[in-house]
Write a structure and sequence with these properties.
Mean pLDDT: 90
Structural class: alpha/beta
Number of strands: 12
CATH superfamily of the largest domain: Aldolase class I
Distance between the termini: 24 Å
CATH class of the largest domain: Alpha Beta
Amino acid sequence: MLEQLMKGAVTVENGKVTIADESVIASTQMDALAYTAVFGDQDAKDNARWLIWEIGQAVGVIPSSIHDLYLARGRGEPGGYTVPAINVRGMAYDTARSIFRTAIKLNAGAFLLEIARSEIAYTDQRPSEYIAVMMAAALREGWRGPLFIQGDHFQINAKKFAVDPVTEVNAVKQLAREAISAGFYNIDIDTSTLVDLSKPNLNEQQRVNYEQAADIALFIRGLQPQGINISLGGEIGEVGKENSTVEELVAYMDGFNATLASRAPGFEGLSKISVQSGTTHGGVVLPDGTIADVQIDFETLRLLSDVARKKYGLAGAVQHGASTLPDSAFGHFPGTETAEIHLATNFQTMLYDRIPDALRSEIYEWLAVNAKDERKPADSDEQFFYKTRKKALGPFKKRFWELDKSVKSQLAAAYDAKFEFLFTQLGISNTAKAVAEHVKPLRQHRMQPHEGMAIVAAAPDDADLSD
């Protein structure tokens, strides 16, 4: 029963959670609860996810919006740092634990944990699971404060939109509904796939982009909990395409703001704007499996961030596809006042580099069959597996969670070092103070599902349950 959970440190009475000993939350008991939230039967999952949420509300680990911090940045208040938005794909619980360990060590508060529309599918992490795992990782490491969970690239598929725009837009809206219900209070609306460079002027090139973005933004605003302004981002250029310009940013923002004002005067708009400055999602993999050098245009980022703040009051520009950049690049982002950068693929690479050879071979054999349609005629094996191995994260999710302790220990050390490097280079050490000043977390309690049920499934013998 719930009263027996966590050695009596957590009790539940009439749907209310009481914490008697917070130290037990940061123990192997939380590992078992997180495991149940992902791999239990449906009733067990529901109860585990509810309990994790309510423990978070009780002790102060609260999903929040970064909107007010970003608007303060738009006013020129806090600055000199770039917020990392980390796509937690594989071995999510252990990866997030490393993030929170690093944040505590550096007193960092300005960071986001995110998952994109496409990643939700291929990693098999629906929003309610993702929220529970991120919160459990925070609780396990003793984190306290706002938790910024973001829906990355809630993106319109251009081909599907061309055939049936209503159905495709509604698919993004319904994902937003699911995410907000789970606790995602930061969402990047990506309709940049609809930019049409064949049109005669910038406004017409951006029109479908900003009109559809405004429509989705209004839908999201109608769903947000009372007292929370969800942080919304727009995007003016698809990542991997031509570099963005100030003129494109102005055309998009003017169009978006005018559309929003005509439909819902007084509604909050965007807090940031994603641009393209030379990167590609996942990087460009060469035939030998190495990643091509990227020439990122920091001057473009500086100019666009400056215009975004001074003309529109936004936090600045957002850079996607940054994790495969050389280490020497990251220290330049705070100097350009880039608001946010997105980091994903390199952490996946670190995971694949350290798993046992036998498991990697098994995954590659699976990909050779199940992802064969994605192989281009000129692809080397290295290119094919590099580009497709993300698709194995969902089917092999349990195997990753149940990796041997020694493997997890090596990964933890590597992740800790990488996150400390990135957080330091991006200048987010000691940003907990700025977050506390501008973000006021709102506690939200939820009704207990399946009251009275036992919810903790036994974790496997080889799971990492060490303190």
